Amino acid sequence: MVETMFMQPEAVGPAPDRWSSVTRAVVSAGVVLYLACVIVPPLAGPPPASGLAVAALQPLRPFVGGLYLGHGYRFFAPDPGPGHSIRWSMEFADGSTRTGVIPDRDADRPRLLYHRRFMISEKIAALVPPDGAPEEARRQSRGDWQPLVMDVAGHLLDRHGGGRVTLHLVEHYLPAPEEVMRAEAGADVVTSLGTYARAEESLP
Amino acid sequence: MRTATMRTATMRTATMRTATMPADVFRAAATAARGDRPSARGAHGAAVRGPECGRPGQGGWLREWLAAWNAFWFTPADPLPLALVRIGAGALLVWAAFVWLLDADAFFGAAGWQRPENVWRMNDQPWQWSWYFAAGSPGGVRLLAGLTLVAAVMLTLGIATPLAAVVSLAGFVSAANRAPLNVFGFDDVLGMLLVAVAIGPAGAVLSVDRLLAPDATASRPTVRANLALRLLQVHLCVIYLFSGCGKLLGGSWWEGTALWGAAANVQYRTLDLRWLAWHPFVTNALTLATLWWEIAYAALVWPRLTRRLVLAMAVPVHLGIGLAMGMMEFGLAMLVANMAFVPAAVLRRAVGPFLGTARERS
Question: If both were cysteines, with which of A4, A80, B91, B211 could B261 make a disulfide (CB 3.0 to 4.6 Å apart)?
Fold first, then answer.
């Protein structure tokens, strides 16, 4: 019974579907190409990755990009870390202010919409070095994360009609089990992402 | 004894049946390559490879490889599992497209979370194409997002399935490549499902296409169905393997505490699992079980003996992630992908009433 449990039904009725050897050869080449596009991207990144894998990825880029196959599949790896959000405070021409957070657990519904916005803070957080990082590293990384933050700031200004907006990246404290048992909680880490005006100039 | 008899019958029709697992495939391929039956059987009816099997010289080893490759990829398969994958993937894309539409201007518009020129600069261009780059107005953006939604509905129902599958895939890729700040694992998996659905005859059964144009031969096993399912199976193994291996770089997975890191993350949490703080061994067990299941999946999902255990484990793992961390779409997408490993016979028994099997037989 165990042996037959997973058998597939035998072909009955019309003649079985058979492909010629030429067709099989051509399709096999396509299969190999597709499998390469599936296997090489997670080998090539995220770091650590070998130079060989990175080089092997180069000729595959049209297919990997075209079919959206460039993934690392490192779900919650190497370690599940703290979550992040972006707090913003906007100033309007009439002197009023408004604050918000990305993502907004109360307003961003359904949950998939929350996750789409949550990814904004998570992906920007992955590029922003911690406060204790060397100044040189912080300066170099600015070119990576600041264009993203400027776009987010510009979108917020367009959406709400404000004059300028200040953003902060918040790393939410991840308590240890012992802290939860003692009903203790650490402080969140807040990093400034800058203040941005409508002209997309970062203000001091 | 009965089992052994049935297996013998199966071996005789090895080239006819829709083998799905390498154990079958390699055995059948070796037999086909030699042009004879297995030379001996073990005490429990299992086929035993004959002494000539795998013998070097005369191209035997290479011929076996070629036969195994052909059997693995080009043996006709029942299209039913692919049709069920189509329904699952289509429904998930309907939901994803609807949510994209809720804030389409922000995701895809010129003044969105990311401006097109910045996405173009960040992506690997010109390869990471998106039809949203060509949309010049908010109306155009919503039209294209709506087109994806319509195509996804058609795909789910099986209306003009081949066209719907291609448009759905194009709409999906366009969204993912235009909004790289907003995608996550769910999108990785959904893309994999949609590629398989676009390749295979996903509308052969359980579709409006079949209702409108009944075709008794449509549900017969085909090579295209097998190709699509095989690509999905191998891709799924790659996902689990890299996901598991990536975790091996982290100390918390070895310590068995990683699950706590996920459970205590307030940004993800939808189910309060802080009671785990008082039960560290439970956290250890769940963490290690998840880790080793992911790593072993690619090996253990193929043998019949372990396949059911591996597939059964997928249910609590992915539903658990969905319920506890608010990523139900990701969990469901992974479960739909796992369906590619469920034998068609099992699925056929489950959905038989919807297939009109009796009518087809008559």
Answer: A80
